[in-house]
Design a protein that fits this description.
Strand content: 5-15%
Bound molecules: thiamine diphosphate, magnesium ion
Number of helices: 34
Largest sheet: 8 strands, mixed
Distance between the termini: 104 Å
Shape: globular
Mean pLDDT: 91
Radius of gyration: 35 Å
Strand order of the largest sheet: 3-10-11-9-8-4-7-6
Number of strands: 28
Amino acid sequence: MSQLRLLPSRLRVQATGLLATRGISERNWRSRSSGPPAAFPSGLGGGSSSYMEAMYSAWLENPQSVHKSWDSFFRKAGEEAPRAAPEGRPVPSGRTTTSKLVEDHLAVQSLIRAYQIRGHHVAQLDPLGILDADLDSFVPSDLITTIDKLAFYDLREADLDKEFQLPTTTFIGGSESTLSLREIIRRLESTYCQHIGLEFMFINDVEQCQWIRQKFETPGVMQFSSEEKRTLLARLVRSMRFEDFLARKWSSEKRFGLEGCEVMIPALKTIIDKSSEMGIENVILGMPHRGRLNVLANVIRKDLEQIFCQFDPKLEAADEGSGDVKYHLGMYHERINRVTNRNITLSLVANPSHLEAVDPVVQGKTKAEQFYRGDTQGRKVMSILVHGDAAFAGQGVVYETFHLSDLPSYTTNGTVHVVVNNQIGFTTDPRMARSSPYPTDVARVVNAPIFHVNADDPEAVIYVCSVAAEWRNTFNKDVVVDLVCYRRRGHNEMDEPMFTQPLMYKQIHRQVPVLKKYADKLIAEGTVTLQEFEEEIAKYDRICEEAYGRSKDKKILHIKHWLDSPWPGFFNVDGEPKSMTCPTTGIPEDVLTHIGTVASSVPLEDFKIHTGLSRILHGRADMTRKRMVDWALAEYMAFGSLLKEGIHVRLSGQDVERGTFSHRHHVLHDQEVDRRTCVPMNYLWPDQAPYTVCNSSLSEYGVLGFELGYAMASPNALVLWEAQFGDFHNTAQCIIDQFISTGQAKWVRHNGIVLLLPHGMEGMGPEHSSARPERFLQMSNDDSDAYPVFTEDFEVSQLYDCNWIVVNCSTPASYFHVLRRQILLPFRKPLIIFTPKSLLRHPEAKSSFDQMVSGTSFQRVIPEDGKAAQAPGQVRRLIFCTGKVYYDLVKERSSQGLDGQVALTRLEQISPFPFDLIKREAERFPGAELVWCQEEHKNMGYYDYISPRFMTILGRTRPIWYVGREPAAAPATGNRNAHLVSLRKFLDTAFDLQAFEGKTF
Ligand SMILES: Cc1ncc(C[n+]2csc(CCOP(=O)(O)OP(=O)(O)O)c2C)c(N)n1
Ligand SMILES: [Mg+2]
């Protein structure tokens, strides 16, 4: 016993830790001694020393008192002959032999664990054999890479042939419960240190760790039938010969070929096959440039001639818009999966150059597809994201997207990530490109297992991919496959990589292509013959040649053949809107009243809301009785009425459930029952469409991208993203510039996402004030200088031609109508709404039901209808404005007694510019000088946008004078007094009827 107490403290700690992982505390097993004898804990390799002590002491007193496994263990130990002591160690007695045995068992157990945790550091992951995938050549001291490393565990060469009991935390034994140390090390090496490197021991879930261990450690798991090997070879042939074909035909064209990672094609196909086998019917893919054409051809199976004709510079584009380069286009394809014989829909989401920007978009689209199918568990729809190593490590949106992966309203129930880790980013070495050991470390934040694999070992890759797919479908969590490969050419086919990576490329030039290596292997083992292999190559080359021949007959390039999200039935057969009209957007009064009533109620019984909220709900009831709405109630009316019409509404963003300004309160919280909530919007009508309102993670880039993807899936949904304050949208600028503003021009894809951007100069400082309208307007595509043709359907056709709609509503009714118009239009355009802050509670900023009932519509311009309108000839100044400044202007006009002399006209829709209505307003007041008034600084806001358009519509006969704040660098002052002084100053100018006298324009 005393010997046992002398167990090294290091091993003692490990033993206790292991007891804990099995849920056995010291107290537990001590108390067991009074019950039936406890079994030998094979999972502990002998357990902790004190446990062992107790068992040993009990056994010494009475061998029957312990479980028979312990009896046999101690008996065996007694039979062991004492061995020669190493230098400095006491010669063991009979008891010390037992002690040694215990020590050795614990040591072996630590050793197994060391491999599970750190084996990947020495795995042979780099096909070039020159780099360490973890950027570190350090060999962990607890891995037995040389025989002398045994000393770390106080083991010696002589121990190698001794049998050791295996713990339950390993599966290397297969059906054996004991193995010799030599065999243990061999099997650990073969699992953890060959061509697969596993990182998973950081996962806190024991079941998940066990699952992975079982998948990789069980002897013989990586065996393939010859059929499977032949399929793999055929897929490699396609992958490689496709790139060869393009290289032969268009040697000077950029295509970002896959050479060096050809295995990605069979890898993706395996993930899809396996997932299809497990019931997946719809796979949504996102990927960057590298190998994209190959994926289109050989995974999604786009017609080859469609791909080849993209290389023809003479082809005329059939579609309007800019189009995009071939390695950015998307694709959608429904087909039979040949391996499982089941239907599968594959889509590759179009993306910009901006690496990783597509990640959240793919997730949003996936979530929407799951939502519409009622696939709450992700059993039918899944996403796959492909990444480059440099981008995966470098781009923050990767992290933002991972953080959506487990949030109830954003999860897609697990994504399979595949990293094409060619160990270079353009010309930059990974050592200069990341501070983390692997490019995949970001995935650890969500406890995703990471499987590194040497891409020159196709069978290892296939095995890993099939486990990854199974993982996703078992645990509904993300998983990463890191394909450690190389890039055979430069960044693109025109680049010379030897300038910057001479040694690496010398090695790459010597590298035998993976197809040859694998074919040689299969030929050598007799799985295929050389002739069969050559025939496979010839067959695919012929397919390419034939498609190439057909591609030459094509005269016109249709981008719409590259649509990633078709909306069946929404457009006519030619892909055009079914009409060019928009119905009126008002709704029957009883619907308004009903929504108002539900919006002021608590639909659940025994649900106690906060007293402050009761006041708000009473206020809503009161407004409903008075046939009035404020901003929040107008929004309720818009959402509620669309839900009634079967339109799903989803509002997402930071704190949107309550609303940043505490005005919305779409989710009620029971004050007495934790986490009991109620969303009255979902209690409007029994057969209404569902409403989702969700507070998001604190991310703009990720969440806006996600909602854009969500909106992509169906035209019959109103999908809104609200920024906490409008200026925060700039951290999602890439989604705005690359997808929202330009998506349709590049990819002929409509998208009706709505951005709600709180905006307004309210003395809150340079931040929180401006949603930067000038930027959205600058990107609007309507022509400032072209005098329009005013057709009958001018409003709708102008909307049809624009890239997005920018509005700044001044009334709740206006907001209500523009939301409804968004869905009633026969096409979809992104809608940017600058939303108010102080107007949310402004007593004047209310609308009557009269402005919202059937027959009413969105007014792009709200004309002057007060005193000035009664005698337009008397009006000396017509001020055009937009948004909240209107209320300051009305107040000032009345306080200066100028209601008859100054007219005020509001632009509710700024872009596309309402030329027709502005013209009409200007003509209504022929004697008035025209002023544009804004509260934003002159170089911001709307002035630069409206000014040339006014000139166009006025024929440059009348000036439009500017009134507003001076140009500035910051959008607003941080000093409240300075804010008020500048407001006063421009209001004075606005009503100084002499202000522009004698000035020329
Ligand atoms: C956001 C962004 N920044 C920069 C670039 C320019 N760029 C294109 S590819 C590339 C290197 C990408 O390296 P990696 O992610 O490892 O992919 P690989 O090309 O090696 O497959 C860079 C920097 C880009 N496309 N997107
Ligand atoms: Mg790379």
